[in-house]
């Protein structure tokens, strides 16, 4: 059974959720918040001393670069960097703090805006007790500076912004951790379901074969003893052994057939759950009534194989399944067929064999959304 460890930092939580591919431009979402630095930038532009103005603007640009670089690193390298020493993380925050202090001569009190960004990065990169300590130091430092630095005024908005920034990142960390735990729970449920099905099938085979093989063994031993003394009775016992063996074989075949039989409606329900877990929007039919009974098992195999390929290989955001009386299509908006047309793989080979046996044709190609299309059509 899969276990999930407690994630003391947002980086660790993202690492546990590392199977989810990060969006390549997701760091821009963090960059949007840099517009709050417009206030200190405006103050610097108005500053009379040219050297202090140049130093302040340069420090602000480097600060913004450090902030954005942190999120780029999270999405590329940081997902696997859970072992990064705490001192290195603190040093990164120290560099951002030094740049903030470099803004003060030109930006004045408005440079305190940068402390909100340092708080957010600290809450992401550090364990909660250390992050809270850093947040309190920054909050206390801002409040003291407003009271002690000549010309500065008391403004509660800076402290309130620092507090809200820390609280927002803390909430994000908890949300990601809950999603990790939910994904692990789903995996555990799936593993338990598979194990239960294996146990059920093992019990069925034991019940089917246990009695029959025991009786066959007893009658075979009896026939062996009677061959010389009573040939007619021995022949009768051998005939019984043959009949029992045929009966046991028929029971095993029936059990295996029942084990492999699929339900189209059940596969659609399972496909919806699997696509939802993979964060892929699903557009599925609400009913299978128009599909003839004799085609439903084949179409169910198409749903299983098609959705599996969408989740594993396509990189899609949407999956659509279309049904009618003689055709099923599985379409996505992912990267589309490979150089060989996308018709390789054991799953598709097996599906083509099933389609041939049912008198149907299988086709693969590009979907209208430039993704992958898998279709099976029953030949009249």
Describe this structure in words.
There is one protein chain. The chain is α+β, with helices and mostly antiparallel strands and 380 residues long. The chain has 3 domains: 10-184, no CATH class; 203-260, Single alpha-helices involved in coiled-coils or other helix-helix interfaces, CATH 1.20.5; 264-378, Histidine kinase-like ATPase, C-terminal domain (Heat Shock Protein 90, 2-Layer Sandwich). The chain has helices at 10-16, 27-31, 38-46, 50-76, 86-107, 114-125, 128-148, 156-229, 231-260, 264-277, 293-314, 346-357, and strands spanning 281-283, 318-323, 327-332, 360-366, 372-378. The protein has a 5-stranded mixed β-sheet, covered by helices on one side. A hairpin with a 3-residue loop joins β2 and β3. α4 runs antiparallel to α5 (86-107), α6 (114-125) packs antiparallel against α7 and α8 (156-229) runs antiparallel to α9 (231-260). It is elongated. Mean pLDDT is 79; it is low at 1-7 and 18-22. The chain crosses the membrane at residues 54-74, 86-107, 114-138, 158-176. It holds the Pfam family HisKA_3. Residues 197-261 form the Signal transduction histidine kinase subgroup 3 dimerisation and phosphoacceptor domain. This is Two-component system sensor histidine kinase DesK. InterPro entries: HATPase_C_sf (IPR036890), Sensor_HK_TwoCompSys (IPR050482), Sig_transdc_His_kin_sub3_dim/P (IPR011712).
């Amino acid at each position: 059974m899969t276990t999930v460890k407690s994630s003391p930092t947002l980086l660790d939580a993202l690492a546990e959720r590392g199977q989810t591919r990060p969006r390549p431009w997701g760091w821009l979402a963090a960059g949007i918040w840099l517009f709050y630095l417009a206030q200190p930038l405006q103050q610097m532009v108005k500053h009379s001393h040219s050297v202090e103005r140049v130093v302040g603007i340069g420090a602000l640009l480097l600060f913004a670069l450090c902030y954005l670089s942190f999120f780029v690193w999270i999405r590329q390298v940081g997902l696997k960097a859970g072992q990064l020493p705490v001192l290195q993380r603190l040093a990164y925050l120290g560099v951002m703090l030094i740049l903030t202090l470099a803004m003060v001569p030109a930006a004045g009190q408005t440079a305190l805006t940068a402390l909100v960004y340092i708080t957010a990065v600290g809450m992401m990169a550090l364990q909660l007790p250390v992050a809270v300590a850093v947040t309190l130091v920054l909050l206390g430092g801002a409040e003291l500076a407003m009271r002690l630095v000549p010309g500065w005024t008391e403004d509660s908005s800076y402290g309130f912004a620092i507090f809200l920034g820390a609280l927002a990142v803390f909430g994000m960390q908890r949300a990601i951790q809950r999603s990790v735990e939910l994904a692990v729970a789903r995996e555990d449920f799936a593993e338990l379901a598979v194990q239960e099905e294996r146990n059920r099938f093992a019990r069925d085979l034991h019940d089917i074969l246990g009695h029959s093989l025991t009786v066959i063994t007893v009658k075979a031993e009896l026939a062996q003893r009677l061959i010389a003394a009573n040939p007619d009775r021995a022949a009768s016992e051998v005939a019984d052994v043959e009949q029992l063996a045929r009966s046991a074989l028929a029971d095993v075949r029936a059990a295996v057939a029942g084990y492999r039989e699929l339900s189209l409606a059940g596969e659609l329900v399972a496909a919806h759950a699997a696509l939802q877990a993979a964060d892929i929007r699903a557009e599925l039919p609400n009913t299978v009534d128009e599909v003839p009974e004799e085609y439903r098992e084949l179409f169910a195999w198409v749903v299983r194989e098609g959705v599996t390929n969408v989740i594993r290989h396509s990189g899609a955001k949407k999956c659509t399944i279309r049904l009618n009386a003689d055709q099923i299509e599985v379409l996505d908006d992912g990267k589309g067929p490979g150089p060989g047309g996308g018709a390789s793989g054991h799953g598709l080979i097996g599906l083509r064999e099933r389609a041939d046996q049912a008198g149907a044709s299988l086709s693969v190609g590009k979907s209208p959304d430039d993704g992958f299309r898998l279709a099976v059509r029953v030949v009249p």
